[in-house]
Design a protein that fits this description.
The radius of gyration is 15 Å and the shape is elongated. The mean pLDDT is about 85. Strands 1-2-3-6-5-4 form a six-stranded antiparallel β-barrel. Helices cover about 10% and strands about 55% of the residues. The longest helix is centred in the middle third of the chain and has 9 residues. Strand 1 and strand 2 form a beta hairpin. It is built from two helices and six strands. By secondary structure, it is mainly beta. The chain has a single domain, classed as Thrombin, subunit H, CATH 2.40.10.270.
């Protein structure tokens, strides 16, 4: 299944945490650096999954489908994205038909 441009209406921003060694050589910091913004189609979990997550006060899951570009192909598991002011952790990435890429992400409670 591919999405049309009209379905990719939600603006998301991708981030990677950048660390730097301190004077003792240990990694410190953790400043998120923007990797850029993209439009995405957002696919939410099924109603049952949403009810279970709410009951368990667990994380919420969604899939963000973007065009496959050099920038989006450079995003890795462990990076984050923001959507509607909330931070999402990217858990998996799937390349779809060379034109789209999907990011499966979770958001805490």
């Amino acid at each position: 299944m591919t999405t049309s441009a009209g379905q990719r209406t939600e603006l998301v921003e991708f981030f990677r945490v950048v660390t730097a060694p301190d004077d003792s050589g240990e990694e410190r910091g953790g400043v998120p650096g923007s990797l850029g913004k993209e439009f995405a189609a957002v696919i939410w979990g099924s109603g049952r999954e949403l009810r279970v997550a709410a009951a368990e006060e667990a994380s919420q899951a969604a899939t963000f489908v973007c065009l496959s570009t050099a920038r989006t192909r450079g995003i890795t598991v462990g990076d984050t994205l923001t959507y509607q002011g909330k931070s999402w952790d990217i858990a998996s990435i799937v390349l779809r038909k060379r034109t789209e890429i999907e990011f499966n992400a979770t958001r805490s409670g």
